[in-house]
Each structure stands twice: as C-alpha cells, then as structure tokens.
Design a protein that fits this description.
There is one protein chain. The protein is an alpha+beta fold and 282 residues long. It has seven helices and seven strands, in the order ββααααβαββαββα. The strands form two sheets. The chain has a five-stranded antiparallel β-sheet with strand order 4-5-3-7-6. A two-stranded antiparallel sheet has the order 1-2. The longest helix has 18 residues, at 77-94.
Length: 282
C-alpha cells in the first residue's frame, strides 16, 4: 500500500505514515490508554497521605493581611497563667469558697492628655495613631466638660484621647506593659505599691510612650505620656496587690505599702502677702 499523509485538525501540517499496514496508521492516531485501576489507587492514596498545603492568611480588598480566625481565638499566655497558676494560689491564700470570688481583671483604661497639641489636627491624628499602635485599638476623643479661661479651654473642645481595653486585647497590652514597657523606662526601680484607690483599682503613669517597641526611637517631636488604670474585681487593695504581683507587676521593694506620705503643714506666714500693706509682714 502506498504511503499516505495524515493531517491533524489542530496543526494542519502533514506528516508521512509508514506503509506497513492500515492498522499501524490507525494506531498512530489513537490516544494513550488510561491508567490501570491499581495505578489510580496508588495515586489516590499518595494524594491522601500528602500533608495539606498551608492556606495563606485572608486579605482584605485593600491588601491588608487579616488575622486568622484560629489565631484570634487562641488564649493569651497571660490569661493562661491566670487560669492555671494564679487562681489556685490566691484561692488557697485568701480562702475563697467560690471560684467567682477570685479577683480578676475587668478592664484597662489608657488615657493620654495632649495639652497644646489638642488644637492641632496633625498632632491629634499622630497621637491617636501612636496610641492605636500601642494598645491595638483605636482611641476616642475626650471632650472638656467645663470652660476654663486660665487654660484657654472651652466646653466641648478636645483635650485628650482615651481607650478602654477588655478581653484578649487587655491581657496582650498588660503583658507588653509588664515585660517590655516598664523595664525600658529610664531609672526604673519598680512601680509604687501605694497607688491603689481603696477599691482594688491600680493607676500608674508613663512619661514617654517611646518605651513601647511600636513607637520607633527615631521618631522626633513631642513625647506624649499616658496614664494606665487597671480595674479589677477585688474588694480590697490587698487582694488587688496580690493579684497584680502574681501576674508579674514589678512593685518596688524600697517603698513600703503602709507608708503614708504627709504633706508639709503650712504656717501662718505662708498665707500672708509679701507686701507691707494690710495683713503683710512688717
């Protein structure tokens, strides 16, 4: 049989076919035979045993990487320490009969006064961005309740910013405050154990927000301070002091908790004017 040329529909280029037999020419155009069942089973078992590929974290339309839901639901390490170690110790020490009597953290309020920067929109936005980076939550503006002429403040003007932290964000901020912020403070010798308000709430102040790693050291401008108020469910200051101590709060050992700072008693001549007129010293 003479040699014939076969044309594929896709390419359109003819190629010669051997003239051995018609069956051989037909065999050249057949598709490859499917895999046997045993090979399919081996491939399927290998695909099942292969570890799943890690899925990338979800992203928003703006390109910001969002938090994985599994990571967001993970218990913070400071919360785990409270549940596993602090609760049994403080229950045995104070003799609580119910687990609900054990003092716990309710919220942390972070306040930042701006002063002269309150009237500057750029300074206000920069301060809010810095506080949001430190705490992990966007702050709110605090307004003046009364007008004070000596401070050039009118009722309703923005005088500061504040943020209230609860839950996992609260434990995260307290952990970074204890282990990163306070140790980086200049000439730090511990916090004052006498700063309780009598109802189990503790307050402390920082002069510079640059002690947190979220604020770069190279950033210039005015250094803003911040006030931190830790609100607990403790009924007495001793219970709150023991709770914060077990959580790792570095209280100063040089300051005794029973020391009462007395103000200097003013005498009569302190209230008299310096002039020689009526009521003054002669």
């Amino acid at each position: 049989m003479a040699a014939t040329a076969v044309t594929l529909p896709s390419s359109g280029v003819p190629f010669p076919v051997s003239n051995t037999s018609t069956s051989a020419a037909r065999r050249c155009l057949l598709l490859p035979s499917p895999l046997p069942r045993r090979a399919l089973r081996v491939v399927a078992s290998a695909a099942a045993e292969a570890p799943p590929k890690p899925t990338p974290p979800p992203t928003s339309p703006s390109g910001i990487v969002l938090v994985d839901p599994a990571e967001a639901q993970r218990v913070h390490r400071l919360k785990a320490v409270y549940d596993q170690k602090v609760v049994p110790l403080i229950t045995e020490e104070f003799g609580y009969s119910n687990v609900h009597q054990v003092p716990k953290l309710e919220k942390i309020v972070v306040n930042c006064g701006l002063g002269a920067e309150a009237g500057n929109n750029k300074g206000l936005e920069a301060a809010m961005k810095d506080l949001a980076n430190i705490t992990g939550q966007w702050p709110v503006k605090t307004k003046a309740k009364k007008s004070v002429a000596s401070f050039k403040i009118r009722e309703g003007n923005t005088i500061g910013i504040a943020v209230t932290l609860r839950g996992r964000i609260m434990y995260n901020f307290l952990d970074r405050l204890i282990n990163l912020g306070l140790p980086r403070t200049m000439d730090f010798l511990g916090v004052n154990p006498n700063s309780f308000d009598g109802h189990g709430n503790y307050s402390l102040g920082l002069r510079d927000q640059g002690v947190f790693p979220e604020i770069p050291y190279e950033v210039g401008g005015k250094k803003n301070g911040m006030d931190v108020c830790i609100v607990t469910s403790a009924k007495t200051d001793n219970e709150a002091l023991r709770l914060l101590t077990l959580l790792g709060m570095p209280f100063s050992e040089n300051i005794k908790s029973d020391v009462v700072i007395r103000k200097k008693r003013l005498k009569r001549h302190h209230f008299l004017s310096k002039g020689k007129g009526k009521g003054g010293r002669k």
